[in-house]
Fold this sequence. Notes:
four-stranded mixed beta sheet; alpha+beta; 12% strand; 16 helices; disordered N terminus
Amino acid sequence: MTSPWLAQPQAAPAAPRPLVRASWNRALERHLDPELLLAALEVAEDELVDYRLAHPLASVLPVIRRLLVRDADDDSGMLVAVGDAMGRLLWVDGDRALRRRAEGMLFVEGAGWAESRVGTSAPGTALELDHAVQISGGEHFNRLAHEWSCTAVPVHDPETRRILGVIDITGGRQAVDPHTLPLMEATAAAVESELMVQRLRAQRDRIGVRRRPPRPVGPPTRPLLRVLGRDTGELTSPAGRAELSARHTELLTLLAWHRQGLSAEQLASLLYNEGESPVTLRAEMVRLRKALERAHVDLGVESRPYRLTNPLELDAQHVLALLDRGAHRVALATATGAVLPGSSAPGIEHIRAEVRARLREAVLTDASVDVLLEYAQTADAVDDGEVWSALLRLLPPRSPRRAGIVAHLESLEG
């Protein structure tokens, strides 16, 4: 059954626009066949995750998702795709039913949609011409794409203006509505601005410039302790940033996690593998208080019970909060590693295990197949047969991804 969001296949226009006519001519000169499926997987399944992580547009995906993907839910009849400069699709998000239909013409992550391969399409032709393009129904060179319409815009390096990739909206006729083109151009401009901001921040950090941030308007920002994928914590606050020792990081993590407070005995049991005297813990707490004073953080430690005087946020707690809101993809992107992976403190091991288990359960239970696929590539899940079996159940029978997943499961079982 044809999706109600898609237009019926359209005949090629009798008098195509000059842009379309020129694109068709290029396709004919390349001896492309409009009756054959021309797209092909150009990035192997086992290479896709690493390639995407290394791509310049990976760091600005939150901008694209905030401006476009948030509205492309399962009832939107819209897909949002991001490709590289060679027209290879790296991310495809949006209406899940529509994504399954798009697999029929291999509009999937890893597939090549350059104009030189598939002929006229918004992403490929936008890259060919280096400007925004809208292609409607029968304007596509390949007849398999005639029931689709799309708008795409290239993204440039903010300094060199070299093409980095392309952003595309694909769906029915609404994908080429008059408001879509300015929205896409605004998204590309926002992406390029964010890339420039990230570059300036990185440059500032490399040369060691540390400016005191401006005084925030309204309530002060809570201090944040980053512990994911780190053996020592990074404490940030309106006053600046400070690196903590491994032991001080463990102490603050435990106190931030147990906000109601801990007795000396409870804290010692969570901190030390073997029994230590309260004197040892008290001496460590004195050193922690001095470290917080040197960092100019508005954060103290009270005794009896030990607890923080002001709230301290953990990036690990942010991951759990995102899971509770159903933001599985963002939670997975935020979970950049295990909680203090080098720590053997019993309390830290418990927190690490809880975050890992909550993430796994949420992704297995409620996440989309694409989020589950991303999770499967992580260190925690790459050898998890249950995760890969769940992927196999969720993927459509004709999905080109199934072969790689079956091979991986066979390697796990062997």
